[in-house]
Design brief:
Keywords: Hydrolase, Nuclease. The chain is about 55% helix and about 0% strand. It is globular and about 55 Å long. The chain is mostly helical and about 210 residues long.
């Protein structure tokens, strides 16, 4: 699923004249940005040499925030979409980089600094985060539910097929944040601060996000 998303993002970037000199020629630039942010600002699996995770986490703690980034090494099915929620961190990251608190000056930090306010890339991150919140995340939680049988999953796959067919013509419904899958007695949508941020009304981002979706 992530591979298909990357192809779509690459096409979107080409249409919007987003180019890069990155050595990751087969990846989308938004994917590279997400990877770089995780590499720089996650303590457990980040880059100890070029990253600045400890100071970044101290900065977040000083403003009563937490680090919602997830290591990029997790399940390939979903991790790109999960970290698409890095759009939530864009303000914190940009403030951190411009406040003088970041002690590192290297290619990794420089690359993030030049990309973190790019509206096209942020719209792609938002689109990925929206797909995770409404489709990938809920589906994953349904699959993990022992009370839902293999045969019962057929109904959810059918809902997914019909929804994707509809969204392929008009994805604007996704911007509303409405729940797609329902399981009696289970909270599979997981509304949190990332959800709230993704479904705020971004006047300048909505059109690009819709195009990316």
């Amino acid at each position: 699923m992530a591979s298909a998303a990357l192809k779509g993002l690459q096409k979107f970037e080409t249409e919007n004249n987003i180019t890069s000199n990155s050595i990751f020629e087969n990846n989308s630039i938004a994917n590279n940005m997400i990877y770089e942010i995780c590499k720089a600002f996650i303590s457990m699996s980040g880059c100890q040499k070029s990253g600045d995770a400890l100071d970044f986490n101290d900065y977040l703690a000083s403003i009563n925030e937490k680090n919602y980034l997830v290591t990029f090494l997790h399940n390939r099915f979903n991790i790109l979409f999960v970290d698409g929620g890095t759009v939530y961190h864009r303000g914190h990251i940009n403030n951190y980089l411009t406040s003088g608190r970041c002690s590192k000056t290297n290619k990794l930090i420089s690359s993030i600094s030049t990309r973190i306010e790019n509206e096209t890339l942020l719209s792609e991150c938002r689109a990925l985060g929206i797909i995770e919140k409404l489709i990938c995340g809920p589906l994953w939680r349904i699959l993990e539910d022992d009370k839902i049988s293999f045969f019962e999953m057929n109904a959810y796959w059918q809902i997914l097929i019909e929804k994707i067919d509809k969204l392929s013509n008009d994805a604007s419904e996704l911007l509303k944040g409405n729940q797609i899958f329902h399981v009696a007695g289970a909270d599979i949508l997981k509304k949190d601060v990332i959800y709230d941020c993704l479904f705020e009304t971004y006047d300048k981002f909505d059109a690009l996000t819709l195009q990316a979706l």
